[in-house]
Design a protein that fits this description.
heterodimer, A: about 350 residues, alpha/beta, 5-stranded parallel sheet, two-stranded antiparallel ribbon, 9 strands, about 45% helix, about 10% strand, globular, B: about 100 residues, mainly alpha
């Protein structure tokens, strides 16, 4: 048997810190490894977004946040922002309006959102009277702003769920012209529905309307949203309108659609913000999707790099999306608060957003 | 924010970064952002001026609980600190809209 190695050689071992993966699972990394994660995250986003990497002092600050052993992290006193919600409430809270009251009285919410579980403007169209009644009750019981929200969800207008051709099938079959025509037809139908539903809920007392996951079905989905916002702004000059995105890059499912001369395919948060505020929205919400195979630190650095350019062009409030699977928050329905709080603080400290 | 359980998402974000609505002045700032597209700094300044407090006071629950009571803007209550004579939500919102120029 050989003699054991000389234990007096070598350097000190870096302590390991509990942190999270993008799926919410716990891992242990050293401070140096966390630094590498942050640098790789911002580098990856900068290359993809053709945007500047985060500055060294910003990375230093993020490292302090992620290398902390604290169970929770928070912004400095005085730096608080307002929170908006894509749907407020869960079944455990009782009725939908009961949940909004609880958001106000017990959860410290700055605003809340009445929504239907089938979170689609096309679906709500058929029950808008019932939603109006619920909004009326909500306004009678809640003091904080009550918004109404749903998703444009353009895919619902394609067969078998809708009347238009199914571009998800037409595109792989290389029937490009038919796919584009189907999307253009769906856009017209979706705009009518969104304007109708949003208008009805606003007239029932909603303090604002929300178009959540805009561009989820690509550039046609985004165009439908922008056109709906434009028409609503013209009809209701005082309406509050929030547009929350689905992803950091608008997919070119159609590829040739434009809004007021700006091609929508490929737009990143900076370009998205420009067209959203041009259409007449009052709040823009960028979304950067999480890679569950990477750490939360990597994902946060990537998300901030993607979103940061839009802060320079924003004339309206920017509410970064930090729900499940976006903005660095783990893709897990029961996210650990150590990760959620770090993402929350990172967006406020680095981006100086107007809300979350 | 969107999906996620109540504790892990809205509560976590509210404690980490939120102005906390009716506990302080978060709902008032939120109204200006949504209704007028006003950025956070300007919205805080506008609300502070309307209330006669400093911007730093807007997220202080002790200060704002008193201010909201005096101005009848609605506030939270709990089992041993009730406010049965506070305005209804509808009444409070009429006052809020007039104060913030929201019509």
């Amino acid at each position: 048997m050989e003699a054991p190695p000389d234990k007096q050689g070598g350097g000190a071992v870096e302590p390991r810190i509990v942190t999270r993966q993008g799926d919410g699972s716990a891992v242990e990394l050293t401070r140096s490894e966390l630094r590498s994660e942050l640098e790789e995250g911002t580098r990856a986003a900068a290359a993809r977004a053709r945007a500047p990497e985060l500055a060294p002092d910003e990375l230093d600050h993020l490292l302090d946040i992620f290398a902390s052993r604290a169970r929770f992290s928070a912004v400095d006193i005085g730096d608080e922002v307002v929170l908006s919600f894509d749907g407020s409430g869960t079944p455990q809270q009782g009725g939908r309006v009961d949940a909004l009251v609880q958001y106000e009285q017990c959860l410290g919410a700055d605003s809340c959102e009445l929504y239907h579980i089938d979170y689609s403007y096309k679906a709500v169209k058929t029950i808008v009277g019932a939603e109006q009644q619920a909004m009326k009750e909500a306004q009678e019981r809640v003091t904080i702003p009550v918004h109404y929200g749903a998703q444009p969800d353009l895919g619902r207008y394609s067969r078998p769920d809708g009347p238009c051709g199914n571009w998800s099938e037409l595109l792989p079959a290389m029937r490009i012209d038919e796919a584009r025509a189907a999307q253009e037809e769906a856009v017209e139908l979706a705009v009518v529905d969104m304007v109708h539903v949003a208008g009805e809920l606003y007239e029932a007392g909603a303090d604002g309307v929300n178009f959540d996951t805009a561009a989820a079905a690509g550039d046609a989905d985004f165009l439908a949203t922008l056109l709906a916002v434009e028409r609503l702004r013209a009809r209701y000059p005082a309406m509050g309108i929030m547009v929350g995105m689905a992803a950091e890059i608008v997919l070119g499912t159609h590829g040739e659609l434009e809004f007021r001369g700006t091609r929508l395919a490929g737009l990143k948060p900076e370009g998205q913000c420009r067209v959203v505020q041009e259409a007449g929205a009052t709040i823009y919400g960028p979304a950067v999707n999480v890679n569950t195979s990477r750490t939360v630190a990597w994902n946060v650095a990537r998300a901030l790099t993607f979103m940061k350019p839009c802060m320079d062009v924003a004339r309206i409030p920017v509410h970064a999306n930090v729900g499940m699977g976006v903005g660095g928050v783990p893709m897990n329905a029961f996210s650990p608060v150590d990760a959620v709080s770090r993402c929350s603080r990172a967006c406020v400290d680095i981006l100086h957003v107007d809300g979350l | 924010m969107g999906s996620g359980d109540t504790f892990g998402m809205p509560i976590a974000h509210a404690v980490a970064s939120g102005m906390n609505g009716l506990r302080a002045a978060g709902d008032l700032v939120a109204r200006l952002e949504m209704a007028k597209g006003m950025r956070l700094t300007e919205a805080k300044r506008t609300v502070a001026e309307a209330l006669g407090v400093s911007a730093a006071d807007l997220s202080d629950p002790l200060v704002m609980h008193e201010v909201r009571g005096e101005l009848r803007l609605g506030r939270i209550f709990e089992a041993e600190t009730t406010h049965p004579h506070d305005p209804s939500p509808q009444e409070a919102k009429v006052t809020i809209r007039a104060m913030l120029g929201l019509g």
